[in-house]
Amino acid sequence: MRALDGRVAVVTGGASGIGRATARRFVDAGASVVVADRDGDGAERVAEELGDAAVAGTVDVTHPAQVDAAMALAESRFGRLDVLSCNAGLATSPTPALDADPDEFARVLAVNVTGQWLCVRAAVPAMRRAGCGAVTITGSVMGERARPGFGAYAASKAAVNHLAKVLALELAPDGIRVNCLAPVATDTPMLKSFLGPDDPERARAAFIAGIPLGRLAEPEDIADAAVFLASDAARFLTGVVLPVDGGRAI
């Protein structure tokens, strides 16, 4: 029996990077998946690759109606909703915190914090109907360890890391577990934003130099941890912020 046999999941940010890898790992583990992403065409491509176990939805996580529709799609297509994997996120190029553009700062918080809250809020009624649920929010090691130049991003991820703990307490009576993954810099299309335009190779080397295991994370590293947290193997884990960081948080 596979770890997620019979489960139904919504994966936001599912068109690329960690979300795409998570959608694939979930299907490999036996789940049916709604691949949700603002890039609707990209979500369709991933769903087509995954076959009958997946369906795509165009979802901007800052739009409540679109988020609600993604959760409804899970129930209408697959009959229930058991798992929510929140991966939609926004990053910026390295900028001193006090030099950040106010509109950009607000946008990062809207996507990375409010967007995750909207997704959980929309998923919980269906999970209550199912009688249980597992939520995984992708935070960041930067939510625990600050790094210069990432004021908006680090603040948003610190908020998400703590939001997961609050939600874990509030939803425990419903049998809904909420955990947070805290990756280190991960080799995805978003990585270009973190590296900045000035000297990306030097920036990449600096990130790697701070990781004891000597490499960036791969999307599959995070996806494998997401499968574990969604499975019964993690049935007594809630409110955990799990570093997937090659030792960076030590």
* CATH homology group: NAD(P)-binding Rossmann-like Domain
- Strand order in space, largest sheet: 3-2-1-4-5-6-7
Structural class: alpha/beta
Low-confidence segments: none
Q: What is the H/E order?
A: EHEHEHEHEHEHHHE
Write the CATH fold name. Rossmann fold
> What's the architecture, going by CATH?
3-Layer(aba) Sandwich
Computed over alpha carbons, the radius of gyration is: 17 Å
Instruction: Output the number of helix runs.
Output: 8
Largest sheet, if any?
7 strands, parallel
Please report which band the strand proportion falls in: under 5%, 5-15%, 15-25%, 25-35%, 35-45% or over 45%.
15-25%
The percentage helix is: 40-55%
**End-to-end C-alpha gap:** 35 Å
The level 1 CATH classification is Alpha Beta
Protein name: SDR family oxidoreductase
Organism: Actinomycetospora aeridis
Pfam families: adh_short_C2 (PF13561)
InterPro entries: KR_dom (IPR057326), NAD(P)-bd_dom_sf (IPR036291), Sc_DH/Rdtase_CS (IPR020904), SDR_fam (IPR002347)
Give the tags.
250 residues, alpha/beta, Rossmann fold, seven-stranded parallel β-sheet, 8 helices, 7 strands, 15% strand
Any overview of this molecule?
By secondary structure, this protein is an alpha/beta fold. The chain has a single domain, classed as NAD(P)-binding Rossmann-like Domain (Rossmann fold). The protein contains eight helices and seven strands. Helix 1 (17-28) crosses helix 8 (219-230), helix 3 runs parallel beside helix 4 (102-130) and helix 4 packs parallel to helix 5. The longest helix is centred in the middle third of the chain and has 29 residues, at 102-130. The mean pLDDT is 94. Residues 7-187 form the Ketoreductase domain. Keywords: NAD, Oxidoreductase. This is SDR family oxidoreductase. Belongs to the short-chain dehydrogenases/reductases (SDR) family.
